[in-house]
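User: Can you write out an input/output pair for a complex, sequences first and structure second?

Assistant: Here is one pair. Inputs:
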Amino acid sequence: SQQGEEDPQALSIQEGENATMNCSYKTSINNLQWYRQNSGRGLVHLILIRSNEREKHSGRLRVTLDTSKKSSSLLITASRAADTASYFCAASGGSYIPTFGRGTSLIVHP
Amino acid sequence: DAGVTQSPTHLIKTRGQQVTLRCSPKSGHDTVSWYQQALGQGPQFIFQYYEEEERQRGNFPDRFSGHQFPNYSSELNVNALLLGDSALYLCASSYRAGTALSGELFFGEGSRLTVL
């Protein structure tokens, strides 16, 4: 079973809008990461948030972590067509092995 | 600075055959992890190599084996291929296995395996 599960599975928005993706996980974690994947290519690391952090920013990205609810969210502000991709959360527990969810497919229409 | 490189990019095999996939980690990285990604799914952890030894393994059968060389590059071998082994195989490198500081993975573009 996968540690991280993203919601929604698919998201379609217009350029300029904000995109929010959610991730739930099952067991306690040391950190949670978000990755992006363009059309079956390699994954690109976006941001890592540690279990003792609640919010983190990187450019147009904002990640929150709620360990009491075992959930995280990724917000992409002012989306661009180039943001079209699949987004995965990956939760790392005691083994520090990132375990990925099934991903959210984001389409940003120009 | 070269990133993670994988070869081959695409390959087609038939059931029962064996395949070897190769990975060179990002410069300065000493840990290599392999993931299998089926179509429409997230990457599934196969195993991780550090100091030429398998350190962690996911829920994959013994048909999946690997190796890490002194220069940190790695191979993934799959024996007795099944149709269900068709997937994108991703190699990811990092520095120092098992520490919170090394959480970030750098991925290659993957090797797409089709089993007929």
